[in-house]
Amino acid sequence: MGLGGPWAWLLRLPTAMVYGSLALFISVLHNVFLLYYVDTFVSVYKINKAAFWVGETVFLLWNSFNDPLFGWLSDRQFLSSQPRSGARLSSRAVVLARVRALGWHGPLLALSFLAFWVPWAPAGLQFLLCLCLYDGFLTLVDLHHHALLADLALSAHDRTHLNFYCSLFSAAGSLSVFASYAFWNKEDFSSFRAFCLALAAGSGLGFVGATRLLRWRVEAASREPGCPTLAVDGGLCEEEELLLGGEEVGSITLGQYLRQLARHRNFLWFVGMDLVQVFHCHFNSNFFPLFLEHLLSDHISLSTGSFLLGISYVAPHLNNLYFLPLCRRWGVYAVVRGLFLLKLGLSLLMLCAGPDCPGLLCLFIARYAPPSFFPTPLSHPFIFVCSLSAGSNRVFTEGTCKLLTLVVTDLVDEDLVLNHRKQAASALLFGMVALVTKPGQTFAPLLGTWLLCFYTGHDLFQQPALTPVGSAQPWPEPPAPPPPQAPTLRQGCFYLLVLVPITCALLQLFTWSQFTLYGRRLHVVKAQRQNLSQAQTLDVKTV
To answer: Where are the transmembrane segments (predicted)?
Structure first.
């Protein structure tokens, strides 16, 4: 009876909440990984520079190509037309296959995360293997999780409902960043190792429990008329059966699929825009400590800097909690375009204000300004107005990335309709988007450091390392007397901070204006996909 009560309560949870909880188990691990894996190998394991660069280079190649590889392996069975004979596979079976994959790959992701914090091989070898293992399982989990968003629901309303819970749980998972500060200590690593062990155990068990609940709900939908257990637009209630296996007359190769994708106009414009978005997101992450160091270190304490870093991970998900209702009302296209215009407007405003407004800089960099920066509204009317209207460069940029997942699910629908596929290749399309946009992760630090060096003559690789925000070391005191290049470096950081988002916003507004999958066009595509599903159902029943 003790087990029956909690289990019965869990079974009554909405499907959207169960699906969204998977984002919690991903984010509790991934945010800690992003913050600490480099510092752990450099400062704790003392990896040498050559091994570090070899590991990063191999990781770059693996990170770029594993998305389409795993997507193809996952969805190649669906890329067939006119099959002659074989086993029947319904849309419900496709979802079950993805859920089972998450049930296996989620715990393996937790184990690969744990492998970073326990030395078990030479530092260079462990760095390479850990990066590739972790990114491989993270890719598998992300692909299946995102593909479920396209497979569980068809309507924009229901997809935004699912994404709402993803943002809610991702925000909760980002709190692990705040908790990590209490355990991070490079001199005594045991407490942080225990903290990571607890995170990995909680995440692994969470994946097992959530996928079991989700699998039970999908299986229950086949036994109950009307699918009352799913509460997601009924997409799984229909027996969209596909003939798979056996001799397939119309199966296509990867080359044929790529040629079809090359003719998908909206896909091409989207990945062009998303490449700039990925570049900007990682530019903000890579240079966040640099901007704090050279623009705000004289005005904020170490604890405030740590808080700014932590809040910049949580706030994008909280932002989505009010952006997603706007997406339901106005459509994702209009909301994303509005965010691009907002990014452009805030950057121009910051450019006009200059680098000597610490409160506005805090708002622009991480959407938080200490109250002491704004003594009274009347004493600083310009900054006060900005504080009311401004969000932040990083927060809104990261938040836009979360909304673009909904656009990819619409592209999945259009790809299915344009090419008359038997089943949407959701994971493969997400993988192809990642293949084109992942280079933005590499371009961000390379282009940023080159621009800073070109403008100021300051080479970051020839300077003493900066103290990471949130580390146990004290905030570095400004040199006395200041070196001659310090004002130039500060000015260079400021222009880098504002001119990069201005350029990105202009490029994105142009590419986004060429994207046509919204409004009436989107409604037609969704109606055609629904008709294709019904036609397949009728054909099977007739046979």
So the answer is: 16-38, 95-117, 123-141, 162-184, 190-214, 267-288, 300-318, 330-351
Between CA 254 and CA 258, with CA 256 as vertex, the angle to 5 degrees is 70
Classify domain 31-246+253-464+485-542 at the CATH class level: mainly alpha
Please check whether residue 177 is in contact with residue 310, taking contact to mean a CB–CB distance below 8 angstroms.
yes
Q: Give residue-wise pLDDT tens across range 244-297.
A: 443 343 467 778 888 889 999 999 999 999 999 998 887 877 676 666 666 655
> CB-based burial of residue 1 (10 Å sphere; 0-12 exposed, 13-18 middle, 19+ buried)?
exposed
Task: Supply 203's token pair.
Answer: 């995440």
Q: What is the pLDDT of residues 61-71, one digit of tens each?
A: 888 888 888 88
Q: What is the pTM (predicted TM-score) of this model?
A: 0.74
Residue closest to 497 by CA, chosen among 370, 365, 386? 365
- CA–CA–CA angle 335, 338, 340 (5° rounding): 115
pLDDT in tens, 405-449: 889 999 998 998 888 887 778 888 988 998 888 888 777 777 877
* Domain chopping of the chain, boundaries: 31-246+253-464+485-542
- Quote the CA–CA distance of 136 and 426 in Å, as a whole number: 18
Reading the block at residue 275, the tokens are: 């490449």
Does 316 sit behind a cis peptide bond, omega within 30 degrees of 0 on the bond before it?
A: no
